[in-house]
Amino acid sequence: MSREKRKKRRIRVFAPFKPVLPPEEAKIKTQEKRLEEERLKVLEFSRKTRKGFGLLSMIVGAFTFGFFAYFLWTGLPLKAATTEIKIALLALALLLGATNIIVGLLLIGE
């Protein structure tokens, strides 16, 4: 009787099954995890910089529009404009184009 009581008292606990993955599948899973982490980093960066780049592109666009509206309103041809004005217009147009490209890439990433 003592043997039967001992058998009843013992509780068997089995270790959980741990699946063994082949190295190829393990490599694929780690690559998928890294890709997911990169996606999250891009989304976080996009959220953080969205307002700044949007504001910058609006300001530069307003200045560019203001310059061209001034030239149209006054009737002053661009040939008569000084080289400083031409350089400023070119710089504003390039800055506007660069910010639009960056904002577009951030929107694609989102």
Task: Please give a structural write-up.
With 110 residues, the chain is mainly α. It has a domain of 72 residues. Helices cover 79% and strands 0% of the residues. It contains 3 helices and no strands. Helix 2 packs antiparallel against helix 3. It is rod-shaped. The model has no long low-confidence stretch (mean pLDDT 77).
What topology does this entry show?
Elements: H1 2-9, H2 23-74, H3 83-109
Task: Provide a short characterization of the protein structure.
With 110 residues, the chain is an all-alpha fold. The chain has a domain at 39-110. The chain is built from three helices and no strands.
Helix content: over 70%
Roughly what fraction of the amino acids lie in strands? Answer: under 5%
Quaternary structure type: single chain
Topology order in helix (H) and strand (E) letters = HHH
Number of helices: 3
Q: Give the terminus-to-terminus CA distance.
A: 71 Å
Radius of gyration: 33 Å
How many strands?
0
Quick one: overall form? rod-shaped
Relevant terms:
3 helices, about 0% strand, mainly alpha, about 110 residues
